[in-house]
Amino acid sequence: MIAPDVLHRLLAELEPYARLAAAGGLRAGPLEGRDGQGGGGDPQAAADRLHDRGMLAKGREVYRRMGRMPSAVRPALLWLSDRGASRPDPRTAARLIAGELGPIALRDRLDAATRHREAAARRYAVAGPRRGAPLTVDGAKAHDAMRGSTTVEQTAEDALVDWGDAVLVAAAEAWFGNRTDTP
Amino acid sequence: MMGSRAETVRDLAARLGVSRATAYRRMEQIRGAQSQPDVLRVVEAEAVIGNGARRKVLAVEWPG
């Protein structure tokens, strides 16, 4: 599993790119000038505010480095930059990125396992053990079905988390291994 | 019962996720309701105790 401090450092370094994109990206200034515009109506105001904080240059630098990254890790880096302000724990981050970018077979497997578990839980609610009543054969079967389906769902989720973790590790290695400036 | 496995109090406690005392109470409850056809069957099984002797223990036939 990727170390939390590595993940959080990666998120912090990628954050200016998402802020730059949210402020309008790397577009050129408007040809007609800015006379008469101000406040919220000015399309360049957000970029100006970033510039005042020194984040515009950082965003450009991240953009420049992002272009040199292998195409295999670029989607993960873009995903991380969009969440640059958050500091999730590694398992949550791996689960979320795998849920969006992971192989469709793994995601389908988890969806099917979740549906199966929910159906088993409904059967358990109807036929499962009841307080004060002796355990019936149907109740025992419902109990086993629910426990088994929970295990299957957990296994499917672990497979997704493993995939996401591998992607995060590869992204961190590519990013920190490709550093040209001093940290 | 076809395809069932006899489970002692210890097995039942592990399966249901309860203490052994609770599993014993459940076993007694099931045993007291053997007249109901849909309730799990309770049987007597043999267990080897520490000195090698055998004694009878209650076991529930869990459907497998």
List the helices and strands and how they pair.
The complex is a heterodimer of chains A (183) and B (64).
Chain A: H1 4-22, H2 45-52, H3 55-66, H4 74-82, H5 90-101, H6 104-127, H7 137-177
Chain B: E1 4-7, H1 9-16, H2 20-32, E2 42-48, E3 54-63
Antiparallel strand pairs in B: 1-3, 2-3
Helix pairs in contact in B: 1-2
Instruction: Tell how many strands the DSSP assignment of chain B holds.
Output: 3
Q: What ranges of chain B have pLDDT less than 50 throughout 5 or more consecutive residues?
A: none
Beta-strand residue percentage of chain A? under 5%
Average of the residue pLDDT scores of chain A: 87
How many domains, in number, for the residues of chain B? Answer: 1
Anisotropy-based shape of chain A: elongated
**How is the biggest beta sheet of chain B arranged?**
3 strands, antiparallel
- Total strands of chain A: the figure is 0
Distance between the termini of chain A: 23 Å
List low-confidence stretches of chain A: none
Descriptive report:
- The complex is a heterodimer of chains A (183) and B (64).
- Chain A has 183 residues and is mainly alpha-helical.
- Chain A has one domain.
- Helix content of chain A is 68%, strand content 0%.
- Chain A is elongated, with a radius of gyration of 24 Å.
- In chain A, 28% of the residues are buried.
- Chain B is an alpha+beta fold.
- Chain B has one domain.
- Chain B has a 3-stranded antiparallel sheet with strand order 1-3-2.
- In chain B, β2 and β3 form a beta hairpin.
- In chain B, α1 packs across α2.
- The longest helix of chain B has 13 residues.
- The radius of gyration of chain B is 12 Å and the shape is globular.
- The termini of chain B are close together.
- The mean pLDDT of chain B is 90.
- Classes of the chains: A mainly alpha (183), B alpha+beta (64).
- The interface between A and B is medium-sized, with 10 and 14 residues.
